[in-house]
């Protein structure tokens, strides 16, 4: 069994979700959102995200982490702030020696819904279907669980590739 932490980074809301994967069987462990106050300075907000992720890793002891890649939108400032949050989301699990893998939004949607053009509602609906006991309070938490599910589906092929390199 492997415990996976999925992270949907954002400076205002960072979604997180934890699942256990045993072969093809997935089970919900926990999920939620780390929220920061938009009136607070960016460095303080990053500290809130960092501290929150540290506590989650300590509490749930995941084996691996998956983080959504940055998409670039027309608002450069928003993209930059998302990059700050992504940096924290990548750094904290890596500092705890977790394997950290990144997935693009379309890859996550394809893995969970079957199409890279899925809506947020479709992603949430499929996460609830795949993890029927999941408690989802915000779309960011559903997205984080979707990222964890995506990693659970892809990790078998990633491990096969790694094993092939080791055996070669």
UniProtKB/TrEMBL annotation:
It is an enzyme of class 3 (hydrolase). Belongs to the RuvC family. The lineage of its organism: Bacteria, Pseudomonadati, Pseudomonadota, Alphaproteobacteria, Acetobacterales. It comes from Commensalibacter papalotli (ex Servin-Garciduenas et al. 2014). The RuvA-RuvB-RuvC complex processes Holliday junction (HJ) DNA during genetic recombination and DNA repair. Endonuclease that resolves HJ intermediates. Cleaves cruciform DNA by making single-stranded nicks across the HJ at symmetrical positions within the homologous arms, yielding a 5'-phosphate and a 3'-hydroxyl group; requires a central core of homology in the junction. The consensus cleavage sequence is 5'-(A/T)TT(C/G)-3'. Cleavage occurs on the 3'-side of the TT dinucleotide at the point of strand exchange. Its EC number is 3.1.21.10. InterPro entries: RNaseH-like_sf (IPR012337), RNaseH_sf (IPR036397), X-over_junc_endoDNase_Mg_BS (IPR020563), X-over_junc_endoDNase_RuvC (IPR002176). Keywords: Cytoplasm, DNA damage, DNA recombination, DNA repair, DNA-binding, Endonuclease, Hydrolase, Magnesium, Metal-binding, Nuclease. Its main location: cytoplasm. This is Crossover junction endodeoxyribonuclease RuvC. It catalyses: Endonucleolytic cleavage at a junction such as a reciprocal single-stranded crossover between two homologous DNA duplexes (Holliday junction). The gene is ruvC. Homodimer which binds Holliday junction (HJ) DNA. The HJ becomes 2-fold symmetrical on binding to RuvC with unstacked arms; it has a different conformation from HJ DNA in complex with RuvA. In the full resolvosome a probable DNA-RuvA(4)-RuvB(12)-RuvC(2) complex forms which resolves the HJ. SUPFAM superfamilies: Ribonuclease H-like. GO terms for molecular function: crossover junction DNA endonuclease activity; DNA binding; magnesium ion binding. Mg(2+) 2 binds at residue 68. Its cofactor is Mg(2+). PANTHER family: CROSSOVER JUNCTION ENDODEOXYRIBONUCLEASE RUVC (PTHR30194:SF3). Mg(2+) 1 binds at residues 8, 140. The active site is at 8, 68, 140. It is found in: Cytoplasm. One of its GO terms (biological process) is DNA recombination. Binds 2 Mg(2+) ion per subunit. GO terms for cellular component: cytoplasm; Holliday junction resolvase complex. Pfam families: RuvC (PF02075).
């Amino acid at each position: 069994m492997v415990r996976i932490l999925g992270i949907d980074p954002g400076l205002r809301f960072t979604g997180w979700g934890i699942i256990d994967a045993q072969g093809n069987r997935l089970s919900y462990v926990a999920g939620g959102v780390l929220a920061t106050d938009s009136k607070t300075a960016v460095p303080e907000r990053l500290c809130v995200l960092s501290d929150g992720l540290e506590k989650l890793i300590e509490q749930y002891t995941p084996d691996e982490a998956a983080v959504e890649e940055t998409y670039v939108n027309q608002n450069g400032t928003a993209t930059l702030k998302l990059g700050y949050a992504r940096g924290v989301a990548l750094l904290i699990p890596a500092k705890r020696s977790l394997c950290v893998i990144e997935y693009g939004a379309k890859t996550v949607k394809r893995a969970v819904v079957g199409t890279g053009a899925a809506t947020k509602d479709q992603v949430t609906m499929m996460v609830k279907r795949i993890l029927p006991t999941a408690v989802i309070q915000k779309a960011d938490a559903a997205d984080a669980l979707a990222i964890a599910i995506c990693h659970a589906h892809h990790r078998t092929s990633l491990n096969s590739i790694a094993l092939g390199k080791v055996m070669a």
